[in-house]
Amino acid sequence: MEQAIVLDKLDILVEQRVYPDRAALTKDAMQALLRSRPELRQYLAVELYRRGEMSLARAAEIGGVDIETIKEILREAGVERRVPTIGAAIHEEVEWLRRIQRDQSPRSLPLIPQS
User: Fold this and answer.
1) Domain spans of the chain?
2) Is the per-residue pLDDT at 97 higher than 90?
């Protein structure tokens, strides 16, 4: 019962300007949930991959695992892997590397030119 009361009053954090708006509060709460429950990240990655909404590399990134581990997770979940064309695979890998580069310090990775 106490948790329900607290959840109903989360808007206080917006009212007191701890968060700029409800969307920022919700985003932070969801990120904290996914950090504390990595199995949920993997579940999301599997379902998004199953629906064709992300590549294998992106599913691994979202799931917080390497490519070989996500392949195993997909196999265990009964998800058939898609094999992209070479051009699409290269494009996805370049985009993945750009995302990683944005998260790193400027000197830790060589620059990958934007197309």
Assistant:
1) 2-82, 84-115
2) no
